[in-house]
Specification:
The complex is a heterodimer. Chain A has strands at residues 9-12, 18-23, 34-39, 46-49, 63-68, 71-76, 85-93, 98-101, 105-109. In chain A, the strands form two sheets. In chain A, strands 1, 3, 4, 7, 8 and 9 form a six-stranded mixed β-sheet that branches. Chain A is mainly beta. By secondary structure, chain B is an all-beta fold. The chains are: A mainly beta, B mainly beta.
Chain lengths: 110, 121
């Protein structure tokens, strides 16, 4: 069982806006920043959002992140077929002294 | 261009040991923390271990504490993971990941392609 809870699946049609939630606790999301990773099929993960809402260079502004209390969310606007991937949230956990990943959300573009 | 090249994976029996390596290039290795992250077949990501830029601090997931040891050789730009007392549940693709932080573990801006470890009798 992951310390960070994500819905196992999400879906949307091209052009739509979808959001993926990530729920944690005071020892992880509540006291540390949240990062999001995208894993396309058969490839290594890629950093998508760091420090709650910062995008690395090269990541389209269609991707955005937010955090409130012990929860965070990833929003993807103008959904495209190439966004079909697994998405993981992650945060440092002060109690466990390590990084915790969410269980992952498989995004399907219908 | 940042490159992380893992090696050392393979098929081992339960209880045996394995040492993974990650050769880094394209950035100043001794300035960044590094981590190992694994992914069991068909499963999600699991952070395994991290090490600060100068090896002063090391971090482990509870699932590997006491069995795995992370280390680095900044003169060789190489990260290591010594895995002892391997179990079937350690079977996974092991990724080497560069941290954006110096002391880490924090967030990982570059990842290798992974090396597969299979523990089976």
């Amino acid at each position: 069982q992951s310390v960070l809870t994500q819905p196992p699946s999400a879906s949307g049609t091209p052009g739509q806006r979808v959001t993926i939630s990530c729920s944690g606790s005071s020892s992880n999301i509540g006291s540390n920043t949240v990062n999001w990773y995208q894993q396309l099929p058969g490839t290594a993960p890629k950093l998508l959002i760091y420090s709650n809402n910062q995008r690395p260079s090269g990541v389209p502004d269609r991707f955005s992140g937010s955090k409130s209390g012990t929860s965070a969310s990833l929003a993807i606007s103008g959904l495209q077929s190439e966004d079909e991937a697994d998405y993981y949230c992650a945060a440092y956990d002060d109690s466990l002294n390590g990084v915790e990943f969410g269980g992952g959300t498989k995004l399907t573009v219908l | 261009e940042v490159q992380l090249l893992e090696s050392g994976g393979g098929l081992v029996q339960p209880g045996e040991s394995l040492r993974l390596s990650c050769a880094a290039s394209g950035f100043t290795f001794n300035k960044y923390a590094m981590s190992w992250v694994r992914q069991a077949p068909g499963k999600g990501l699991e952070w395994v271990s991290g090490i600060s830029h100068s090896s002063g601090s090391t971090y482990y997931a509870d699932s590997v504490k006491g069995r795995f040891t992370i280390s680095r050789d900044n003169s060789k730009n190489t990260l290591y993971l010594q895995m002892n007392s391997l179990r079937a549940e350690d079977t996974a693709l092991y990724y080497c990941a560069k941290d954006l932080n110096t002391y880490g573990p924090g967030y990982f801006d570059y990842w290798g392609q992974g090396t597969l470890v299979t523990v089976s009798s």
